[in-house]
Amino acid sequence: MQTITLAIHGGAGTILKEDMTPELEQAYYNGLQEALNGGYAVLEEGGSAVNAIKAAIVILEDNMLFNAGRGSVFTKKGVQEMDAAIMDGKTLDAGAVTGVRNVRNPIELATEVMRNSNHVFLSGKGATDFAIKQGIKLEPDEYFFSQFRYDQWKAIRDSDNYSLDHTHQHLEELMKDKKFGTVGAVALDAEGNIAAATSTGGMTNKKYGRIGDSPIIGSGTYANNKTCGISCTGHGEMFIRSVAAYDVSCLMEYKGMSLKDAMEVVVNEKLVKMGGEGGMIGVDARGNAVMVLNSAGMYRAGRSSNGWNELAIYK
């Protein structure tokens, strides 16, 4: 009997219990559990890994607590720009979008790019034009507005600081929750196929159309049936420079490492040497799931038909 497995994350960073109210903590747990249930139900019904991770991420994108979709942070210009990527480990097909605005669920657009565009990566207005052509749901700016995110942005918009979602070192009194806000999912389905996906609203106050690792195939997102599916969250620049997601696959393919060992090397050795903070989730062809972080916390959850069930925030 083929194992089915799903793991999800909602961002990593300096997430400390003492900074969290019991109500907020419970809200995060509920949000993770809802997304896990939604994605896992697809797998239980015999659905594909691609559809399962998409279902999980749509739920996270619709939840204001997470920096993706509806909960996306404000850029320097005071708007939301969203990135997303998805990859099918069976075919190595992939789809990604960056700098998209007003798209309710960027992960759905990335999936359309993978399936129907003959391309892998679309950006900005062109990606939005394609979304309209494909009938992807758009929302007005008000849909993406949250007072919490707006206040974060207002505090630093006149400076050259940027914030990796919830704060920057000059603003610790204002917001203690230094979180790399990204959501992601990885899955193994009943057919033995692996998929991975990631979605993000990027950095608060980001300038120049900055792009992080999330939508970059091989850096923030990667899937290959021969090895693993990986979704990353963290300081995107370091994950791009180390091609973090693909590096895990390479260590498995060329060195024969296990998923866990390969992820430990990338997250706790290679990234640490570069000063790269964050984490990643992974699944392999046997249904093993691993969630590794070098930061104080990572919103994460997972479930497998072999009995594994996890819901966690802190390290």
UniProtKB/TrEMBL annotation:
- Which protein are we looking at? Isoaspartyl peptidase/L-asparaginase
UniProt cross-references to SUPFAM superfamilies, sorted A to Z:
N-terminal nucleophile aminohydrolases (Ntn hydrolases) (SSF56235)
**Gene3D superfamilies xrefs:** (Glycosyl)asparaginase
Source organism (scientific name): Danxiaibacter flavus
InterPro entries associated with the record: Ntn_hydrolases_N, Peptidase_T2
Superkingdom as given in the UniProt entry? Bacteria
Q: Which Pfam families match?
A: Asparaginase_2
